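can u pls check wat happens w/ pyridoxal-5'-phosphate
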Amino acid sequence: MATATLTIDLDAIANNWRAMDRLSGQGVQTGAVVKADAYGLGVPRVARALAQAGARRFFVAASEEGAAVRQALGPGPQINVLSGHMAGDTDMIADLDLTPMLNSLEQITRHLEALPGHAFGVQLDTGMNRLGIEMLEWQAVAPILLEAGPVMLMSHLACADEPDHPMNLLQLEAFHEMTDGTGIPRSLAATGGIMLGPKYHFDLTRPGIGLYGGRPFDTAQRVVSLSLPIIQTREVQPGEAVGYSCAWEAEQQSIVATLQAGYADGLLRSLSNKAMLWDRETPCPLIGRVSMDMITADITHLSEMPKSLDILGPHQTLDELADAAGTISYELLTGMGARYLRRYLEARN
Ligand SMILES: *Cc1c(COP(=O)(O)O)cnc(C)c1O
């Protein structure tokens, strides 16, 4: 393979959705978050695989992303836009039947005036202070807005990946206070919230990262593998250095492989001298600086020259690579570069 290849297992995504659906519990719907091009994995294929698994309610960050999901899925599934009804988006929301989650009085006014009768939800701020209507505003506007029949009231947890964080209960209480007795379907939990247990699930859950194999859903099936072709190998002598800033120096006679992919492909520069690559079962340390288009690995101990090495696979998960880079799986996934060949695995049925 002459190109760095990102393999995306659509069956694993479907299985992860089913597992999140089981965890969400009986009588609770399970949505699917496919913002940022399905966390960098390609929204057309991923959204179709999720719809086939049974997902009916999708979440995206912006209307343009909603348009891509609608194009992939056709009419039917509900596509919710987390940024709400932004100025200039009215036609797209109407024509493609998107459901904006209204975040402010300004958005409420815009939506009810421009598209009366068109489906909408409401995002409430329960303490994250990022998006949504706050308690006092909500108390003022709720009587009118509930009359217009929102399809959902939702909020988002700031610290759900830390089960013992006091913020979780505070936000849960605020959400109850703002929504109890409304009779409108409610949604609070993303992946982390699903793991917190049933009292966080309400009527609809919104998993994202769990579908794609990342923490905190620890029993997720692995979704991505990344294999990098070796462009060239060379022998270096003790005392010789490799790459920019001579950041790695050979202590013994070594064989260095240069591989095709670098920080322009999302292999963060913070992986310099840190990550591991794998020749099947054998680890090969990434050595020296990550360059824009290349990385280097120490393959001295291999008995045969491989054509490629894996940087994501059975021996190094997304979270492990993210840890090595000092970041989180979300950033690594969404930063996967456009130059990778994307190969989708899907059982034929
Ligand atoms: C991104 C996002 C999600 C999904 O979160 P994960 O942690 O990836 O499961 C759910 N809800 C909202 C509002 C989001 O922004």
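The radius of gyration is 23 Å.
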